[in-house]
């Protein structure tokens, strides 16, 4: 159902995916992934930090679909950064996921100095065929600029917190100018924005829920996004956004909801930490 985006390395990535942060337990994960697959999701996003790679791997195996149908992404945890640790941890991730390769491998958070060595490891892991594409998560412009000048290749995806209360316009623009697809985590602001009257009013106009309005806003913004839910009806609802269109005026109204509200970790702290170099 969802659009395919062509990444800078030529690989194709579904614009909408299924997030698995904080989804735990084999039964819950299996049910969520089965519902999501049924509803049309093909991208499944996990991370070493989520501690659910083994359960996600089992749930994906249980789908019994050709590997080429799935787009699986994982991320290297902070504690596994550095060249050797990155290589070893990714092999461990693949083992847990029951996969020969992932489609997209990302550095989860930029860690002082270590992120550059981790990035070299990702480049080599791609050469070795253990991932199709390499990207980063939670990188600020300064980190991307560093890679742009020091590394032999740039990430093709930057996964960041993005929703109407934190629309990240400057970083999304920077990513785009560098051929990097922005992928939104917590695209619904962890549900905290859904009571907003502006979203409700726009939704009523289109006979859609506030969540569907927000996801459609991501879609029309040209970014990728990975909503999550453990409820089948919501999993389906979040894919049911391809039969309506927001007007330019509605898009602008949603853009105007930005108030820099974060649901997650403050990357400015990471930035301060990194300022040393
Ligand atoms: P639940 O899993 O109970 O359905 P985000 O993707 O921004 O992190 O937001 C995920 C949160 O939003 C989860 O708590 C999820 O709850 C909730 N959620 C997901 N989809 C919807 C929806 N369509 N309507 C309302 N809440 C939703």
From TrEMBL:
The UniProt keywords, alphabetically, are: NADP, Oxidoreductase
Q: Which residues form the NADP-dependent oxidoreductase domain?
A: 27-258
Report the GO molecular function annotations: methylglyoxal reductase (NADPH) activity
Query: Which Enzyme Commission number(s) are on file for it?
Result: 1.1.1.-, 1.1.1.283
Which CDD domains does its entry note? AKR_AKR1-5-like
Judged by the first EC level, this protein's enzyme class is oxidoreductase
Q: Member of which family?
A: Belongs to the aldo/keto reductase family.
Please give the name of this protein: Glyoxal reductase
Q: Which organism is it from?
A: Limosilactobacillus oris F0423
The gene name reads yvgN
């Amino acid at each position: 159902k969802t659009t395919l985006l062509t990444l800078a390395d030529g690989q194709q990535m579904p614009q909408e995916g299924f997030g698995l942060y904080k989804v735990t337990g084999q039964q819950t994960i299996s049910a969520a992934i089965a519902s999501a697959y049924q509803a049309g999701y093909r991208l499944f996003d996990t991370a070493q930090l989520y501690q659910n790679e083994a359960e996600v791997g089992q749930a994906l195996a249980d789908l019994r679909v050709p590997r080429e149908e799935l787009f699986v992404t994982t991320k290297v945890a902070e504690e596994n950064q550095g060249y050797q640790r990155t290589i070893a941890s990714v092999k461990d991730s693949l083992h847990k996921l029951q996969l020969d390769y992932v489609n997209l491998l990302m550095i989860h958070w930029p860690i002082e100095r270590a992120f550059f060595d981790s990035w070299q490891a990702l480049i080599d892991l791609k050469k070795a065929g253990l991932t199709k594409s390499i990207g980063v998560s939670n990188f600020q412009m300064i980190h991307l600029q560093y890679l742009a000048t020091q590394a032999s290749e740039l990430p093709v995806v930057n996964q960041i917190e993005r929703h109407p209360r934190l629309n990240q316009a400057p970083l999304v623009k920077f990513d785009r100018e560098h051929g990097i697809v922005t992928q939104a985590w917590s695209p619904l602001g962890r549900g905290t924005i859904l009571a907003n009257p502006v979203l409700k009013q726009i939704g009523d106009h289109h006979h859609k829920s506030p969540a569907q309005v927000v996801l459609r806003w991501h879609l029309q913004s040209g970014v990728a996004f990975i909503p999550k839910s453990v409820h089948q009806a919501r999993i389906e609802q979040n894919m049911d956004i391809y039969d309506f269109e927001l007007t330019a005026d509605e898009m602008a109204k949603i853009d105007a909801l930005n108030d820099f509200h974060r649901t997650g970790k403050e990357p400015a702290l990471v930035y301060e930490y990194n300022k040393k170099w």
